[in-house]
Amino acid sequence: MKTFGILFLFITLPFSLSAQSNNLPPKPKEGECYCYNVNKTQKWLKVDCDLTKLSKEKVTALQYKLNNLGYKIEITGWINEETNTAYIKEKKLAKKRARKNKS
């Protein structure tokens, strides 16, 4: 029984070590949000933190809305670089419109 425990430990050790090695963004900063782009670049992408709080359905709806506003983005339901860039631009434009309407 003791040899079985030792054998089990040596068999499972490589799996547990690989599970512990997390793929993290390089030099992450506090208060910033990141997502991992699996499809194209397979790199970490700094994104607007508001996007990370959305469900897949809401991301899809946002992508349709941004696409209808004239941004060229692919509707995937996942946060990608195009969605992030379009969202940040539209957020800035919405703030400008709100200031313009105020005055």
Write up what this structure looks like.
- It comes from Neotamlana laminarinivorans.
- Residues 1-19 form the signal peptide.
- Keywords: Signal.
- This is OmpA family protein.
- By secondary structure, the chain is mainly alpha-helical.
- It has a domain at 33-102.
- It contains four helices and two strands.
- It has helices at 2-20, 49-52, 56-68, 81-102; strands at 33-36, 44-47.
- Strands 1-2 form a two-stranded antiparallel sheet.
- The protein is elongated and about 80 Å long.
- The mean pLDDT is 84.
Question: What's the layout of helices and strands?
Answer:
Blueprint: H1 2-20, E1 33-36, E2 44-47, H2 49-52, H3 56-68, H4 81-102
Antiparallel strand pairs: 1-2
Secondary structure: helix percent: 55-70%
| Spatial arrangement of strands, main beta sheet | 1-2
| Major beta-sheet overview | 2 strands, antiparallel
> What's the order of the H and E elements?
HEEHHH
- The number of helical runs is 4
Low-confidence stretches: none
Q: C-alpha Rg, in Å?
A: 21 Å
Q: Say what oligomer this is.
A: single chain
Beta content: 5-15%
What overall form do the CA principal axes indicate?
elongated
Mean pLDDT across the residues is: 84
Report the span from N to C terminus. 80 Å
Task: Briefly summarize what is shown.
This protein has 4 helices and 2 strands; from the N terminus they run H-E-E-H-H-H.
